[in-house]
Amino acid sequence: MYFDDRLATVLRTGVSSARSARIQFRQLLDLLGSLPEGANGPQIASGFDRIADLAGRVPAEQRAASIRDSAARLTNPRLVAILAGNDAAVAAATISSARLSAQEWTQLIPRLPVPARGLLRHRRDLGPEPQALLHRLGVHDL
Questions:
Q1: How far apart are alpha carbons 71 and 48 in whole angstroms?
Q2: Rounded to the nearest 10 degrees, how much is the dihedral formed by the CA atoms of 136, 138, 140, 142?
């Protein structure tokens, strides 16, 4: 089980305005985006639920800008999967910002929506296994 008091603090904070929703989305993006491999627990599940809920409250352009501007690297495959299933602008920002290993991409690609898979064609750092998987799944214009 993983516990981060920063995540607990963010989750205790209410979301009473559009501004507070944007701030909390950014905070959760930074905290969840850099979670260590295998981190889990009820608090983390709540964090993922909250960021998914905030997707309905924060406009797509602002979510995409937060992803692009985030100082933290987006290294958590679970968060990448959640964000890549959003609006096209959010998915594009997520796919271009994510920093995953070739093995993580290989495991994640089958779970990604087809449009997000297509966005991966713009990446040149995937490695041979993820590229071969994309080809098998019909993304040919790499």
A1: 19
A2: -80
